[in-house]
Amino acid sequence: MRTHEEVQSARQFAGRSRFIEIMFGVAFVLIILRLYYWQIIRAESLQAIADAQYGTQRTLKGSRGTIFSADGYPLVVNKPVFRLYVEPIHLTAPIDHIANTLAPLFAQLSYEDDQALYASSSAEVVLEQLQKEWTSSILDRLQKKSPWVSVKNNIPLQVKDDIEQLSIDGLGFEEQEARLYPEASLSAQILGFVGKNQEGEDQGYFGVEGFFDRELRPRSGLSVLEKDALGNPLSIGTHSTIGARNGRDIQLTLRRDIQFLLEEHLKRGMEKYGSKTAEGVIMDPATGKIIAMASFPSYDPEKYYQYPPETYSSLLANDVYEPGSTMKIFTVASGIDAGVIQPDSVCPVCDGPRKISGFTIKTWNNEYYPNSTITDGLVHSDNTVMIHIAELLGKDKFLDYMKKFHLFEKTTIELREETIAPERKTWREIDIATASFGQGVAMNGLQMVQIAQIIANKGLLVQPTLLESMDDEGTVMKQEAKVGERVISEETAWKVTEMMEQSAAHGDAKWAIPKGYRIAGKTGTAQIPVEGHYDEEKTVASFVGFAPAENPRFVMLIKLREPTSSPWGSETAAPLWFAIAKDLFIRMGIAPSQ
């Protein structure tokens, strides 16, 4: 029989054994939980750390899409530029030596980029000041306690080569891309430009660059490569790549030769007639394709930051104006289509000024033609004849035709900056009367040329477009003509065309009409509204028309703001229109009418 001491000792031993068993059990559970934590919960993060130690990844960049003219010429391409960076830990030369060596190169670049800004000072003085500024800037950057410091972007290839020949340890280059414009500022407001967004990424602004930014923008890729402890690639390691995608190439409807022709004429016309601005658009009436489109003043898209922002947009798309007498082709077309008049209908109330709602409305030259026909009214640009047509139509019918001609809507052209006038909520009798001859109603130039396009295209609306096709890495998507509804009958369109021919042939600018060609057109001279009244000295002079009248190949609007040589469209915009048309007949191979 065991003694009391032996029993007590056995109990103590059993207790210790159980404690040890419990501790082993707890330890085992803790180990299992810890393994679960590391292998399950932290698996992804640990794998990422391992990948960082044994693998390297590199972002692959594609190229932004190229923009071509309709005849295949590149209007916007990419050029290689470089970012200079410094890894201070690897620098062996003194930072003041580096700054003094790089500053002259960067000063020269800054001067070349913005010579116009420094035109009032001598080159030597400007370069000396820029060199001081760059020396200070580089020193500030190199003194930063950072493993990697960006020094300058957009360094040309030649300057990069010059810096590399200096053999300065710790300097490196990162390749980038910048937009290059082979035709300089040609069609700048249609193309737009590429700048930086808030994240520092390339982004298109204005024009086609802005409208099609998503399509032109490249898609980045990723390359992942396994390496050993020394950083060398493993021959049996994994290597995966998600390829970058280039942006889509875009072909515009613009013809380079005609775009150049239009711009040269507009610049000369702006100087000859002393206008503040000059605008022109040429469209194929059957397809809606914009063959050429420009407005001045313009800018250089490669150095857009040197120009005022108001030059970035095409005035034809975002300048809302009162069209004046060019609006009369709309009024005549609406009246004939509605059946309330015919070209030879006689106006019984056109022998003097009209009094409407307490207002007296006169003709532009205060001359009147009793019992004149509607055709006579268009030829003489008679306001009283247009008021008569509007009265026969009535307010509701007149507004219905404004809607049919889409004068309360944007044209949907591929320019995000297109602007239209807000739709008037109430229309009084006087508002309809003045709108009939283009006063008190506003639109942009594209809306005006669309009115003429409908008439030239036998009454069918075709939406204007700048897009010919889009190429997605070999897959070409053609833009089809956006044919809309019939706005007026074909018979109406022919009648209005004949009336516009008479208007052009008997107008004050008939001397400028190219011989042998039938041209349908209408002048416009609109006073500019200023603070609730019209400025009697400042006008917008314009001419809209198409040719050849019997088979229109182009429709064109020319518009001059505040010409000083003469306020009248017949003496400024019309002769300019005919001069451009004369060159277009040759350039487009259009034979004289038989």
Keyword list:
single chain, 594 residues, Beta-lactamase, 2 domains, 17 helices
Rounded to an integer in angstroms, the radius of gyration calculated over CA atoms is 36 Å
Number of strands: 21
Report how far apart the termini are.
143 Å
By CATH's scheme, which homologous superfamily of the largest domain applies? DD-peptidase/beta-lactamase superfamily
CATH fold-level assignment of the largest domain:
Beta-lactamase
User: Which CATH top level class of the largest domain fits?
Assistant: Alpha Beta
Categorize the overall geometry: elongated
Quickly give the CATH architecture of the largest domain.
Answer: 3-Layer(aba) Sandwich
Which whole number gives the mean pLDDT?
A: 88
Biggest sheet character: 7 strands, mixed
Secondary structure elements and pairings:
Blueprint: H1 4-41, H2 43-54, E1 55-60, E2 67-68, E3 74-86, H3 95-113, H4 123-142, E4 149-155, H5 157-164, E5 171-180, H6 188-191, E6 193-196, E7 202-205, H7 207-211, H8 213-216, E8 221-226, E9 239-242, E10 249-252, H9 256-273, E11 277-283, E12 290-296, H10 315-318, H11 328-338, E13 354-356, E14 359-361, H12 374-379, H13 383-404, H14 429-435, H15 445-456, E15 460-462, E16 467-472, E17 475-478, E18 483-486, H16 490-505, E19 520-530, E20 533-547, E21 554-561, H17 573-587
Parallel strand pairs: 2-10
Antiparallel strand pairs: 1-8, 2-3, 3-4, 3-5, 6-7, 8-9, 10-16, 11-12, 11-21, 13-14, 15-18, 16-17, 19-20, 20-21
Helix pairs in contact: 3-4, 9-17, 11-13, 11-16, 13-14
